[in-house]
Amino acid sequence: MGRTCILGDAAHPMLPDQSQGACQAIEDAAALGLIFGRDYTYTSDVAAGLALYEMVQKPRATKVQAASARARENINERIGFSSMKIGYKAAVAMGKLTIDEMNLYDMRRYVADEAAPQRRSRSDVISHKGAFVPLMSVSRMPEQWARM
């Protein structure tokens, strides 16, 4: 019996209100590429690799999916709008999806944080668990960068 993995809309269909369906499918594919790539040894244990994939992608996709459903009813739930109306810290505290959360996501670091240390095939793949601090908030990005 073989293994099957679903991703994108097959795993987590999105309403179109956040325009994130294709983005989440690309993130799913990237996560699988990292997990089953040269930095880890999950190719020797596909079940463990797929479990890591689910652990890494399911919470993020679920949050995006929920935000998309809320945005159908309330335009203020759209990514970015949520933090403009009530402030960034309030948006985070209320569990709203923020533009920084979408744009500053570091999948490579997140996979490294969640992967079992014994699964690393290279010594330079280092976990930074709890160390993610955005260098610059997108909402504070210099105006000339925002126009690019």
From TrEMBL:
One of its GO terms (molecular function) is monooxygenase activity. Gene3D superfamilies: FAD/NAD(P)-binding domain. Pfam families: FAD_binding_3. Keywords: FAD, Flavoprotein, Monooxygenase, Oxidoreductase. InterPro entries: FAD-bd (IPR002938), FAD-dep_Monooxygenase_BioMet (IPR050493), FAD/NAD-bd_sf (IPR036188). It comes from the Eukaryota. Residues 2-65 form the FAD-binding domain. Belongs to the paxM FAD-dependent monooxygenase family. PANTHER family: HYDROXYLASE, PUTATIVE (AFU_ORTHOLOGUE AFUA_1G12410)-RELATED, MONOOXYGENASE. This is Salicylate hydroxylase. It comes from Cladophialophora psammophila CBS 110553.
